[in-house]
Amino acid sequence: MLISLRNDHKEHLSLLTNQSVQVLIDFCKLAIDFLQNGPNLKFYAAAAEKLSVEVDAVQNCVYGLVNLLLLSCKHKLSEADFRDSILTLGFSPEQENILHKFYESKKAEITQILNKLTVNEPHYDNLEWRFEVQVSSRSLHHQVVPLITLDLALKTLKDDGSGYHKEHHLLQTDVTNLQHIAHELEKALNESRSRHSRKIQRTLDNKV
């Protein structure tokens, strides 16, 4: 699998394509320092002065390296896929080798962080339902009150990944509310299939 970088991401990384291998190594160190300690404007200012560029260019370049690392870990790129993904950025083979070592050195650590940040949301497992109808009473001989009782089963992946934990939720609603819920779910499903929603999802998949 290859990752597709946005144009602004490519532009931020382009600062390094014409730099020496040592400068690239120094920027990888800045990226690692960012991951461990957050941004350090003092370091960025020193690098900007050395390269005769704006501080923002250095900062964006560091962010670009970090984002490249996060995307590569998120999609679990192999060595070949990683190299092919950055091939169009203009790096030399020697620079590509440095970037790959940078990726390999932090892959396990970043993957662990990403797994912790992943929201483990419940997923649909099963739904059972039945009608309950009160047809009359002493005071109202023609009363009809239909209700639907639902047993909604949801499953959540266990923290250790060994299986799923299931929970049952008992719900009760009338026909009018159930029709409204079904209508809203149908609208949401149709919206998720729209071109706009697919475009948003593709954008999110390329971000961390």
Largest sheet: 3 strands, antiparallel
Distance between the termini: 17 Å
Order of helices and strands: HHHHHHEEEHH
Strand content: 15-25%
Number of strands: 3
Contiguous helical run count: 8
Helix and strand composition category: alpha+beta
The value of Rg in angstroms is: 27 Å
Q: Given the C-alpha coordinates, what overall shape results?
A: elongated
Helix content: 55-70%
Low-confidence stretches are none
What's the mean pLDDT score?
82
Main β-sheet, spatial strand arrangement? 1-2-3
Task: Provide a descriptive summary of the structure in words.
The model has no long low-confidence stretch (mean pLDDT 82). Strand 2 and strand 3 form a beta hairpin. The protein has 208 residues and is an alpha+beta fold. It has a 3-stranded antiparallel beta sheet with strand order 1-2-3. 56% of the residues lie in helices and 17% in strands. The protein has 8 helices and 3 strands; from the N terminus they run H-H-H-H-H-H-E-E-E-H-H. It is elongated.
Structure described in brief:
56% of the residues lie in helices and 17% in strands. The protein is an alpha+beta fold and 208 residues long. Strand 2 (145-157) and strand 3 (164-174) form a beta hairpin.
